[in-house]
Amino acid sequence: MSNHSRRSILRGLGVSMALPWFESLATRGTASHGSTAYASNRPQTPPQRMAFIFVPNGIHLSDWTPKSVGHGYDLPKILQPLAPVQDELMVLSGLTHDKGRANGDGAGDHARSASVFLTGAQPRKTAGQNIRSGVSVDQIAAQAAGHATRFASLELGCEAGRSAGNCDSGYSCAYSSNIAWSSASTPVGKETNPRSVFERLFSDSPGKGRDKKAEQRERLKMSVLDFISEDAKRLQKTMAVQDKRKLDEFLNGVREVEQRIERSTDDNAANIDLDYPQPPNTPRDYGEHLRLMCDMMVLAFQTDRTRIASCMFADAGSNRSYRNINVADGHHGLSHHRDDPVKLEKISKINQFHVAQLSYFLQKLKATPDGTSNLLDNSMICYGSAISDGNRHNNENLPILLAGKAGGLVDSGRHVQVAPETPMCNLFMSMLERFGTPVDFVGDSTGCLSELQL
Questions:
Q1: Which structural domain range is residue 35 located in?
Q2: Is-contact 36 260, C-beta < 8 A?
């Protein structure tokens, strides 16, 4: 038997759609229609998922950090969009990425911040091909547990970036454009096109074969659902009434995302918020781009295509502007604020905009059933930056959030203050332990973070 997760799969020409778990099918152990059957030995408890989200250029900490610790803290200005999920949220203050500091290597803080974010390793200062960092926490988990799903992990982003050349004071662009590293010398490239991610999740053809099938559907103006409709009808005949409703809700949700992808790429006008060419077939509206990437992670977790994901909301040192929230200045330029209150206010608006997209993601996870609870309850979502204040370029007291309850292994709804200089990698050690893939160390870790549970 394959080690991959066994769920019912609806199939059509070039389409393979794994479904969420349905109780009425699980009790049978096998299905009587043409779709791939549920495995009768599926674990009773839902699997853990984890995702990591990177934002660049630091945060305006005075508008980020709650004034009190423990339960019952008030959400500061930047975090207010998270009010609907505050009970599932942990604000972590005091974590440090020492290897994001120069440590004798001079300038290049932005490139180091992305490289160190999930690795905790000091990147070699080079703009050549001899790059070196460390294995990132997501890839440690993927290498240990990725065999259980079709894709070991999913790497997403909204800015294409570059994989070579000098992007920051002698550091390769590979450092600025990636947070996932499968080995010390191998960054895992991210996908920035929502349509490509959607096709990857729901295609049964590899590589070029997948692209040809997608082109065929696009020419015919057909949805992926058109190709699996007959299989879906056969499946519904075997389902209980409640599961039929859930299947309809799932398929309608998939179609809604698909339609939004189609609408978002219809407008090919230039994006004036970018100081580089807009990547082809990507949404012009940055907020919609972010939300679609969040939708991709939800769908991937819901269908168990993967249990591990990462997303760069923007590349390290990104200087995009945010005219959609009336901030015409470049983000990186603003981050060198020199305590200018006007610039600080604009930075807070950018920070809050990013957090609002995170809230969208978390609320969708919370609204998605998973066993007897929901996806957010069975996930760990780590969000933040490896630079604290963009003006100082410091790497201590990082702005970090951990959302989700890890199936009851994280006591959320708190603001936690850890001891100064506690390695960020101690959080990663604790996440890996809860994910079922414990290791002896990650980067510069010194142990697990005991504060995740009371």
A1: 1-44+195-280
A2: no
